[in-house]
Amino acid sequence: MSGGMTPDRDEHVLADVKAPLREMVFPFLEMIVVTGVLWIIIGWFDAADAGRYGVGPLHLPPEWRNGFVLLWAVLVLWRFLLPLLRKRRRRMIVTDRRIIFRGDGFRARPRTLSMSAVTWAEKERGLLAVYLRDSDVPVCYRGLPKVRKIARIINDPHL
Predict the structure, then answer these.
(1) What does the alpha-carbon distance between residue 21 and residue 45 come to, in Å, rounded to a whole number?
(2) 56: which of 1, 14, 44, 51 fits an S-S bond (Cβ 3.0–4.6 Å)?
């Protein structure tokens, strides 16, 4: 078996899902607000440099404007792009022999469950609970789309 997120040649992929984009709604809205506020301030600096709109007496160095542009770029990277890339790394592959799951983050490593060890899977409060033969506590996976369909595939892989 391969150690990464790619199934072996003799495995049949039944489901392959990534984290849904709906988890990025609030970071996206935050990015819109940050962009609007900071670019209003940057426009105010531009108008002050041109002496328009009655803000002429305030003469600030152009480095301040550049500092706000840099602040905007850092905030967009930190509050939107990095969380987007981190969340989109979450992935689950269900094959006829195993379940491969990788969590959020750049350092997350794939974890594998053998299908022979799985007794049952179901949706519980929005997450996928996979029950194993040798454990009373299920393995739970959070933040996956189509949880009910994945549970059906795990329970009956011949669908």
Answers:
(1) 35
(2) 51
- Domain coordinates in residue numbering, the chain: 13-19+90-155, 23-87
Output the CA angle 90-115-155, nearest 5 degrees.
Answer: 90
13: β partners? 95
Rounded distance, CA 59 to CA 28, Å? 34
Domain 13-19+90-155 has CATH 1.10.3470: no
pLDDT per position as a tens digit, 62-114: 788 899 999 999 999 999 999 999 998 999 999 999 999 999 988 999 999 99
Cα–Cα dist 99/7, whole Å? 10
Judge contact between 42 and 68, C-beta under 8 A: yes
CA distance 157 to 94: 9
For residue 149, how many C-alpha atoms fall within 13 Å in the half-sphere facing its CB? 9
Q: CA-CA distance, 115 to 119, in Å (whole number)? A: 8
Q: How far apart are CA 89 and CA 143, in angstroms?
A: 12
Report the largest interatomic distance among the alpha carbons of the chain, rounded to a whole angstrom: 76
